[in-house]
Amino acid sequence: MEMKVIKNESKELVVEFVTKDLTIPDLIASELLQNSDVEFAGVEKDHPEIGNPRLVVKTGKKKASDALEKALEDIDENFSDLKKKLSKK
Question: Would you give the DSSP letter of residue 64?
């Protein structure tokens, strides 16, 4: 999946996903909200038929890019655990 970093500041990050599907950006936003350092995480899209979804992350103390990296690692770990559990059955 292609992504473009639109804004990368210390406490704010905006990443555009080149897709019409909101599944992955929503999953990442949901995981980001589990982090107490994240003040805001959400997905914005101009209109369902135009534009691409953008993941917006705002943090208080830590870097937004670090929070995103942690969320992606947690998602990867969760899916690895699920894969292991499913392969045992």
Answer: H
